[in-house]
Design goal:
alpha/beta, binds D-fructuronic acid, 416 residues, binds zinc ion, five-stranded parallel β-sheet, single chain, TIM Barrel, three-stranded parallel β-sheet
Amino acid sequence: MTELRADIKCAIRNQVSQAVDETLITDIHTHIYPHTFEALLLWGIDELLTYHYLIAETMRYLDMGYEHFWALPKRAQAELVWKTLFIERSPVSEACRGVLTTLEKLGLDVSKRDLEAYRKFFAEQKVDKYIDKVFELARVKCVVMTNDPFDDTEIGYWLDSRQRDERFRAALRLDALLNSWHTAVPKLKEWGYNVSSEINSQTVSEVRRFLVEWLNRMNAVYMAVSLPPSFAFPEASPRGQLISECILPTARETGKPFAMMIGVKKLTNPALRLAGDSVGKANIDVVEYLCANYPDVKFLVTMLSRENQHELCVAARKFRNLHVFGCWWFLNNPSLIDEITRMRLELLGLSMTPQHSDARVLDQLIYKWAHSRRIIAEVLTDKYADLAAAGWQATEQEIRRDVGALFGDNFWRFVG
Ligand code: FIX
Ligand code: ZN
């Protein structure tokens, strides 16, 4: 194989960078909401600074009790994070860097390090126009939310038919149903579903009615759940029975994928609350079992452990009803996005969705996609340069086609 001339690689890099920068993205997993969901939509500098990733990083430096921190007003928490992670030390972590990228892309002077000036800018923003600005800066055309009918606040917005913004698509999140059945039962009963703790035929039928009714109410794109490293299936547990008798038949009946986000150890440090979750290697056999035994069900899968990534790619090579997505949470860092994206392109070609943002704060769309685009563009440049070195020159149109596939077309094609 001949060595590629530097000017050809440079031309490829320019074509790829332009395609990656200009292609509008479908962000297939986030925790953001339209402004009609009011306080559920988090945005602005104080929310950016109190992102749970940054709280975990801040508490590493403080002797302060966790409860003392949580008792502080949001602004005081943000000021403490700012002082600890940005002023007293250089903000080199990915989550810190993300705040700076966001401020810079919004046109604020990061060199001034002036938190009050940044607060003034956000205070001047009108939320509906600001959403437009963020989507435009992030070049995101659509996000899929995380929508939990078991959340006492969120359910009200759905029953009140508040979802009006087509840029925000719904995903029916089922952690309460599947991972906390004993708390789900009384709520389902209160809502008029004739269930009992025993998962008998009546309960199965009523849970399936609940699923279909909420998939329809939300016009949800998929059903989703986060699962521990110990996730097993089949399993003689409420979760095992509910997946087997309710989720999978509903996925088959409606054609809606079942998204499994596997490997999260919930509340390893409960005092950190949302920031207290950790990671563990899961058993890929479970993913392979589900894909093999339910070939007519579509599975969206992301795994939290770096050690699961290679075997997940291999599993996806075996099962076309398995769509791999994202560099989730603790994997959403430049060094790991690079490693995982290269692995996926080398093993799966373009048949996957390389990234989602998991944004919890609206403005994070700006940095999470700016950072990921840069890495994905670099990896794609190398791959197209490898092709060119063998004499295969991808055209600009072909590059744009491929990038569109990675940034949403594959997802929508898989979802159907
Ligand atoms: O289960 C999930 O959707 C996780 O992404 C979240 O629980 C987690 O807190 C997060 O936001 C990670 O980025
Ligand atoms: Zn998430």
